[in-house]
Each structure stands twice: as structure tokens, then as C-alpha cells.
Amino acid sequence: xxxxxxxxxxxxxxxxxxxxxxxxxxxxxxxxxxxxxxxxxxxxxxxxxxxxxxxxxxxxxxxxxxxxxxxxxxxxxxxxxxxxxxxxxxxxxx
Length: 94
Description:
By secondary structure, the chain is mostly beta strands. The protein has one domain (7-83). Helix content is 0%, strand content 39%. The protein has no helices and 7 strands. The chain has a 3-stranded antiparallel β-sheet, with no helix packed on it. It is elongated and about 60 Å long. The mean pLDDT is 84.
């Protein structure tokens, strides 16, 4: 049987609100003081008998985002983009 070691680093531009593994409760998860990064490790004693699932949320994940950009060649043309990411599912750690 193979053994493995998983190490994951998350670097975010907005603060992380939660980080956890729904499949490996014993994963060691460290969130930085500024909440902009996280380090996750699984033990080298871990036996690869299932998928590794990592879930994280950002504080501003559901905040609408907009961009207004002038076309680089046609200066009289402007492009607008509005993104909504509704909070359809409330995921909680139990």
C-alpha cells in the first residue's frame, strides 16, 4: 500500500473566512494572521483510500463585482461587466 503526503498552500487577494477538508478531518490547517493565506498538510501516514476534498470561502466571495474598461483601440468604446455570485448554498462546518 502506498502512503502519501499532501501539502497545499492557498494565497488569496481577499480574506479567507473558512478552510477545511470534508474528507480528512485530521488535516492540519493553519490560517495566517492576516487571513490572506493558508497552509494545509496531511500526514505521511495517510493511506490514499479516498479523494482529498478541500473547501475554502473568502469573506467577499458573494460581493458583486463590476468593471468598466475603455477599448484599447477604439477609444470611444467602453465595455461594462457586472458579476453576481449569489449565495445559493450555505455550507457550514459541523
